[in-house]
Amino acid sequence: MSSQSLIPHKRDAFVNANYRFLIHPDSRDTVDVVNPDTNVDWDNVEQVVVSAANCSNCPVCLSTPSVPRMAKCGHIFCLACISQFFTVQANPYRTERGCPICMKHIERCDLRCVRIIDCFAIKSDKKMSSDDDESDQEDKQDDEQTDEEPSVKPGQTVDFCLLHRKSDYVFVQPVPEDSTNTSFRSNISKKIPFVSTKGVLEFSRYMLATRKHMEAEFEREQSTLEIEAIESLTLKDANQLGTVTKCIQEIETSNEGLSQRYSTDSNSTSMSLAKTRASWAAGYRRATANPTRPAGVGQDYYFHQAVDGQYVYLNSLNIRMLRHEFGDYCNFPKRFSLFVLYTEEATITPYIAHLPLYCNITFALVDLSGVVSEPTLKRFENDMAQRLDKSKPEP
Ligand SMILES: [Zn+2]
Ligand SMILES: [Zn+2]
């Protein structure tokens, strides 16, 4: 590990803020579980988890990335497209090039598998969206959103679930729907959870990869490529068929290598590797610690977030209403679907201080009728009216 790669660049911060990471279990000690602004060490990443809302089309073929791979710069390509990009050269064995988008130096060995998480929490109300002729004319798909567009708009409905986290760590867990006491709190620890743990793939910034998970991912990718191979054969596209066949072989090799990468026998050597990495990680943490970030010690935080892991949270006024109705945060409803009245881009507040800077966070002011009682609605009626009034554009 060269010291140069430890210098935090803006691009690394972008990757850190927008994506979540599966880490090899042997590297677990290198992950900063306290400071969310410490950039992940790319060498330890097994797979990158990306919300479909943050995934743009492959810049080479302009389609939704098929068998996606991420370069270190954060750009996502189809495996077949990026493989072809590396080989279309005077030297067919060339393994490094400039990224076709940002020109940052990328290497084949730095490409990482990507798991795209479908967006399903935000739904458009048909009645409302028919008034919104402009967006119809643009004929835009949800997955073609750009970074500047807010992920949720007034008139949409969002499915939220209640999450819990300890103030000291970056990990969150969904509050079990049937929980009547707070015993689930002890399930969360400072240890990185395995990807197979419930709620982890949707909400955790870091998770530990398992051999079983990676095998399933490679098998899924192989099936996709096999279909592409048949298509190329039908279209008599020999060039594409050659590329796809090579990609299938490449994944096969990676799949076969899993038994070694995830062998339990390698514990002794991998532990010393983990120790070395842990020591520089500690130094790096100290160097990059952000003293201005809001923090609490040993506190339990509860908050609602969109069920598919998108960074959509409730407006502070809604939280006050829920507190008035339900008292303690842990008594808040575990899941609900709410109609959005107004949205605003937000800055990090204590309960979501586990998110890195540069995240696109949206606070939604929602209609809580049906969730809280009439007296509660009445009590906050004026505040709601004032908040909604402020949101209207000045005449
Ligand atoms: Zn492509
Ligand atoms: Zn790039």
Tags for this entry?
disordered N terminus, alpha+beta, zinc, about 400 residues, 7-stranded mixed β-sheet, binds zinc ion, metal-binding, zinc-finger, Znf_RING_CS, 2 domains
Describe this protein's structure:
With 395 residues, the chain is an alpha+beta fold. The protein folds into 2 domains: 3-118 and 207-288, no CATH class; 122-189 and 293-391, no CATH class. Helices cover 33% and strands 19% of the residues. It has helices at residues 10-18, 79-87, 126-129, 133-138, 200-203, 211-234, 238-261, 267-288, 316-326, 374-379, 381-391; strands spanning 20-23, 45-51, 68-70, 76-78, 96-98, 105-107, 112-117, 122-124, 156-166, 172-174, 206-208, 300-306, 312-314, 335-345, 362-367. A hairpin with a 5-residue loop joins strand 3 (68-70) and strand 4. Residues 1-8, 127-148 and 265-293 have low confidence and may be disordered. Bound molecules: zinc ion (ZN) (2 copies). One zinc ion binds next to loops. Keywords: Cytoplasm, Metal-binding, Zinc, Zinc-finger. Pfam families: zf-C3HC4.
What is this structure's SSE topology?
Blueprint: H1 10-18, E1 20-23, E2 45-51, E3 68-70, E4 76-78, H2 79-87, E5 96-98, E6 105-107, E7 112-117, E8 122-124, H3 126-129, H4 133-138, E9 156-166, E10 172-174, H5 200-203, E11 206-208, H6 211-234, H7 238-261, H8 267-288, E12 300-306, E13 312-314, H9 316-326, E14 335-345, E15 362-367, H10 374-379, H11 381-391
Helix pairs in contact: 2-7, 6-7
The structure holds zinc ion (2 copies).
Biased composition (Acidic residues): 131-149
Region (Disordered): 127-154
Organism: Phycomyces blakesleeanus
